[in-house]
Design a protein that fits this description.
- By secondary structure, this protein is mainly α.
- It has helices at 3-14, 17-36, 41-46, 48-52, 56-72, 79-86, 90-123, 129-157, 160-182, 190-194, 208-232.
- The longest helix is centred in the middle third of the chain and has 34 residues, at 90-123.
- The two termini are 20 Å apart.
Length: 235
């Protein structure tokens, strides 16, 4: 991957207004819903860190939208053919695309984590500095992994609508239902495992950082499948 290729992919992303809106939505949705969760004092008592970072459940939808849109535009109007004509090595192009997705989400995720931790620590004095730091870093990494997971799935399906149609219902509905019914197996789902880092207490198998590692494995699998699909299919 070279700097000019990365710069070209970043230009594509930043010139789309919807992408800038998605990045803003990550921060706004996470902080707003986390602040609203502060009214649930019972939930805050049981798990203050997750109460402080509750909005990540909604902020991740914006991160997923960012990842899917950044890739799906390549499958519209023959854009991918032009991209691959400029960068014939598909692996290099795909790596640049993923980097151009990951870096802004990571930066916004860190800002989101900092703002959310500040709001949370102001209303939840029982939160320790170590918990706030873990939540801030975990928030940024989790959002980045979910954006990349969405990008990989979009590459496999060659459709942002299809990827969103799978991921959004899964995250908002299916994961919770399966989690209630399946016990420990559900703890290894990408969202449930990754969000352990945002909990003060957890009962499942993965811990905070091993949970993020599980999410990273899901993301790596989606990216690998996307790279395989990209190499096998014509532009």
């Amino acid at each position: 991957m070279t700097v000019p290729v990365l710069h070209a992919e970043w230009i594509k992303i930043r010139t789309l207004r919807s992408q800038a809106g998605a990045l803003c939505a990550i921060l706004l949705a996470t902080v707003a819903f986390s602040a609203l969760a502060g009214f649930d004092t019972e939930g805050a008592d049981s798990d203050p860190l997750f109460s402080a970072f509750f909005g990540v459940t909604f902020g991740q939808i914006a991160a997923i939208a960012f990842g899917t849109t950044a890739v799906s535009i390549e499958f519209q109007g023959g854009a991918l053919r032009l991209s691959l004509a400029a960068v014939p090595r598909r692996g290099r192009w795909f790596a640049a695309k993923l980097t151009a997705i990951a870096l802004p989400v990571l930066a916004v995720g860190l800002a989101t984590g900092l703002a959310t931790a500040a709001v949370g620590s102001a209303r939840l004095p029982e939160l320790s500095t170590a918990e706030c730091l873990r939540g801030m870093l975990g928030c940024a990494l989790y959002l980045t992994l979910m954006a990349l997971l969405a990008a990989g799935l979009t590459t496999v399906l060659r459709s942002g609508v299809a990827a969103l149609g799978i991921l959004v219902p899964f995250l908002l509905i299916v994961s919770f239902v399966v989690g209630d019914l399946s016990g420990n197996a559900a703890d290894l789902l990408p969202d449930r495992a990754g969000q352990v880092v945002l909990h003060s207490r957890w009962d499942g198998t993965p811990g905070p950082w091993t949970g993020l590692a599980v999410t990273a494995l899901w993301t790596a699998a989606a990216i690998t499948a996307g790279a395989w699909r990209l190499r096998r299919r014509d532009a």
